[in-house]
Design brief:
The complex is a heterodimer of chains A (251) and B (194). With 251 residues, chain A is of the alpha/beta class. Chain A has one domain (5-244): Aldolase class I (TIM Barrel), CATH 3.20.20.70. Chain A has ten helices and eleven strands. An eight-stranded parallel barrel of chain A has the order 1-3-4-5-6-9-10-11, surrounded by seven helices. The longest helix of chain A is centred in the first third of the chain and has 14 residues, at 59-72. Chain B has a single domain, classed as Class I glutamine amidotransferase (GATase) domain (Rossmann fold), CATH 3.40.50.880. Chain B is globular, with a radius of gyration of 15 Å. At the A-B interface, helix 2 of A face helix 1, strand 8, strand 10 and helix 6 of B.
Chain lengths: 251, 194
């Protein structure tokens, strides 16, 4: 049976992880490669690396980092942050990234999704959407959640999949940082209307939240950052918890 | 031990080479006929689209060379589908090692089949040291059905071949280079036992 995926997300700046890491037995807690390898050993199913300060000059640093990750880590990983062209994607895929994720650049230029899907295949094109409820409807935000776009969540997600996105990474800005749980209803709606996998992000605070979004929320995967980095939720225990409650997970 | 990873326009060659490196093996990434013929082990990875990949193999003559190879040969993901007779993806005539078709998954669940799923294998050499139903990582929309060549099967929407074998030709629908320790063990078995 296909299992539900648990995905830690690592924020990167200048080749280093930026969020505080309260982790065990790490030589260099700021080294994304070592941290990623540790998560892989603990049973993470995939990793996401987001370059939060990505610029053209820094793309080379990111490419080098991606090569190091691919050399050391034996599970799939996605790279994102400031990707706005097919050439940037080509560099990252050739350096060993399995998938790339785009967000603001796709809102600005939706044709980028088509171009990437045709050139590299839908399976490696992940569309990230930051959504926030405004006057009762879910709107799409760009630039790290700073700018409200014209787009509505469900319409945008459907359009993106028709254009060739192979997976949707949904971050609920209303839930993000609250530790009160994922946006279960929104995730479920999205997952039910889309023919591709949906990854839920934002709001993880305890193990039950993962259970809720992977069952009631019908998410194919759940992503979190700080609860893993600070050791508040440990992946092996989380997976045991999910398995005991009947959720198919890889242990 | 000379290992060649065939480089064509549809491969995630760096990840495969990195996985071999972690096992202590160097590999050559090449599409040169001479290098491929001299190899002790040949790996044929693939991420991409079948008809485009086949066009490239025809332009480079690899479509003639590959079926004649006698050394252990391992197709991965698209590599498995290209070793079939035909793929529905772009209506591609393929290499014809396995007399069967690669078909698009029927409706019934999300496509691509993406993530970790179990394989039920035949206990052959390629799977030495593994549990009965280990987890491996899949990303694919097309599949080869069960056949006389099936050496491992997986269930998603329907049961399909997660690994095939005919003589020296082995093929995996999943990505051993991304399948953690299980995947590394399978690659190690291919290099050391086959």
């Amino acid at each position: 049976m296909l299992t539900k995926r648990i995905i830690p997300c690592l924020d990167i700046k200048d080749g280093k992880t930026v969020k505080g890491i309260n982790f065990i037995n790490l030589r260099d807690a700021g080294d994304p490669v070592e941290l990623g390898a540790r998560y892989a050993e603990l049973g993470a199913d995939e990793l996401v690396f987001l370059d939060i300060a990505a610029t053209l000059e820094r793309r080379k640093t990111l490419t080098e980092l991606v090569k190091r990750i691919a050399r050391d880590i034996n599970i799939p990983f996605t790279v994102g942050g400031g990707i706005d062209s097919a050439s940037a994607v080509e560099d990252l895929l050739n350096s060993g990234a399995d998938k790339i994720t785009i967000n603001s650049s796709a809102v600005k230029n939706p044709g980028l999704i088509d171009e990437l899907a045709v050139r590299f295949g839908s399976q490696c094109v992940v569309l990230s959407i930051d959504a926030k409820r405004i006057n009762g409807v879910e709107k799409v935000f760009t630039n790290g959640g700073r700018n409200e776009s014209e787009k509505f969540l469900l319409l945008w997600a459907k359009e993106a999949v028709e254009r060739g996105a192979g997976e949707i990474l949904l971050t609920s800005m209303d839930a993000d940082g609250t530790k009160n749980g994922f946006a279960v209803v929104t995730t479920r709606t999205l997952s039910e209307i889309l023919p591709v996998p949906v990854v839920a992000s934002g709001g993880a605070g305890k193990e039950e939240h993962f259970f809720d979004v992977l069952t009631k929320g019908k998410a194919d995967a759940a992503l979190a950052a700080s609860v893993f980095h600070f050791g508040e939720i440990k992946i092996p225990e989380l997976k045991k918890f999910l398995k005991n409650k009947g959720v198919p997970v890889r242990i | 031990m000379k290992i060649v990873i065939i480089k064509y326009n549809a491969g995630n060659v760096f990840s495969v080479a990195s996985a071999l490196r972690r096992l202590g093996y160097d590999s050559i990434i090449s599409r040169d006929a001479k290098a491929i013929k001299q190899a002790d082990k040949i790996i044929f990875p693939g991420v991409g689209e079948a008809s485009g990949a086949m066009s490239f193999l025809r332009e480079t003559g690899l479509d003639i060379l590959i079926p004649k190879l006698e050394k252990p040969f391992l197709g991965i993901c698209l590599g498995l589908q290209l070793l079939c007779q035909y793929s529905e993806e772009g209506n591609a005539e393929c290499l014809g090692i396995f007399d069967q078709k690669a078909k698009l998954f029927p409706p019934g669940n999300k496509i691509p089949h993406m993530g970790w799923n179990e394989i039920k294998h035949n206990g052959g050499k390629l799977f030495t040291g593994l549990t009965d139903k280990p987890f491996v990582y899949f990303v694919h929309s097309y599949y080869a059905g069960l056949s006389e060549f099936t050496i491992a099967e997986t269930d998603y929407i329907l049961p399909f071949s997660s690994a095939l074998r005919k003589d020296n030709f082995y093929a995996l629908q999943f990505h051993p280079e991304k399948s953690g320790k299980t995947g590394e063990q399978i690659l190690k078995n291919f290099i050391e036992l086959i």
